[in-house]
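General statements about sequence and structure are easier to judge against a single worked case. For one protein, we set the task of working out the structure tokens from the amino acid sequence alone. The sequence in question and its structure tokens are set out directly beneath this paragraph.
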Amino acid sequence: PDQVHVECKCGMRTAAVFDNRGWKRVARGVWQVVGGTDPRSKVAKMWNDHARERVQPMITPSGMTISVTSLAQLAKEDACERCFWLNDRLKGRWPQSHFPGVFTHLDRAGKLALAQWVNEKHQTPPWLAKFGSIKRLIKPPHWSKFNFTHGDLQVRGEADVIAVLESGGLFIPDLKTAMFTGKQEEVLPIYAAQVNCYGLAAEAQGLGTVEKLAIAYLQPQPDGQADDMIRDGGFAVYFSALAFGVDRNDERIFEMCERAQRILSATTAPLEAGNCEECQKLENLIHITTNGGTP
């Protein structure tokens, strides 16, 4: 290929390295080789010559990559192709979209608790026992190294937990810090697609053969006794776990990949679905900005 995507951690410092070696920047994160040298060999040379911990190149033939989270949005029956295209172009940075950082810490606490149980007690957590006996845990690779490719699309992400069962197969549960309510059923197809992608990535990276997939809800239970919750430095909240298996469906994921390639290859946004609430909000925002008043 004459273009490659490079994910790097050191910004302009990496840009200077590429410039000195005959590369030209043509877009953010996209570099074009000058002089006909094979991009793969130049990236490999750069990788060997410079700090490994600071530069992480990733190459795909077409340069088309997408996150597991983004691809999974196409699992919804009413998935809007316009929103999907816009989200890719905006890199998920929609106006007034904020994700409270506390949820990141809660997610991390759940993963640490599970790892501590397995590593210290050498047992499978009771709420996961129905999926088999866990022999050991594999440290999930960083998202930059955990991916699979279908066609010209590379899908990448980072699994919460990757476990090796006593049978030798892999067990991948996706942890969700949320209450399982009736409304959660609307997002189950998205969650199922996500954990299926992690399964494909695990096998693509040679970690083993996936035997079981699951979704596990970690649900805060604030209704305990006050004496049990109060601590000198604050208070503690108990979490209950609800886990259920997910069927593997490679064909469905590959269909979503092909649909994503078609959508993202377009140079302009697709037409709105007509019944998309998010598109209507966007149209209202544009109307107010250009015409004033109310939508």
About this structure: The CA atoms of residues 35 and 167 lie 52 Å apart. The longest strand covers residues 210-221.
